[in-house]
Structures are given as C-alpha cells and as structure tokens.
TrEMBL record:
MF (Gene Ontology): nucleic acid binding; RNA-DNA hybrid ribonuclease activity
Protein name, UniProt field: Putative ribonuclease H protein
Domain RNase H type-1, first and last residues per copy: 8-42
A Pfam family the protein falls into: RVT_3
Organism: Trifolium medium
PANTHER family reported in the protein's UniProt record: OS05G0353850 PROTEIN, PUTATIVE-RELATED
Organismal lineage: Eukaryota, Viridiplantae, Streptophyta, Embryophyta, Tracheophyta
Domain of life: Eukaryota
C-alpha cells in the first residue's frame, strides 16, 4: 500500500490527466476478476522507481495461467466477512 503522501500525489496526478479532455471512464474491478493487474501491482509494490518490461514478467506472461484466465474471463470467488 502507498503511504498517505504517495496516495495524495497519485490522486492529484490522475485528476490532472482526467482534465485533459479525454473521454475516460473509471470503474472498480475486483482483483479476482483481473489477476494480471493484481500481479503487476504486487510486482510494482516490491520495487523502488520505475520498471519497464519488454515482455510481461512471470507470472503474467502471455501464455501464463493468469493471463489465460483473464483472457477467458475466469474468476475466483471473493470471500466477504459479514
């Protein structure tokens, strides 16, 4: 998780991008429905600075299970405490 200062900075940057006049729709997608994005976010949180990949890293390669699951719409149940 990003600290509060990092979070505020990120939100400010997103707001600036949204003011560029683009047609943008933001919506929440649970991690269970987009495992590739969740895996990439986890990789990003383990690193300092910007990382660029020429090809997707494991475990999110094009022929990897996560990518195939996302491509075919496979989801896993989300457990919610009541």
């Amino acid at each position: 998780s990003i600290g509060s200062n990092g979070g505020r900075s990120l939100i400010r940057r997103i707001q600036c991008l949204l003011q560029e006049g683009w047609n943008v729709r933001i919506r929440h997608v649970y991690r269970e429905a987009n495992k590739v994005a969740d895996a990439l976010a986890s990789i990003g949180c383990q690193s300092v600075g910007c990382i660029m990949f020429d090809i997707p890293p494991a475990p999110v390669g094009v022929d990897d299970q996560l990518c195939l699951a996302d491509r075919f719409g496979v989801t896993t149940p989300r457990i919610v405490a009541l």
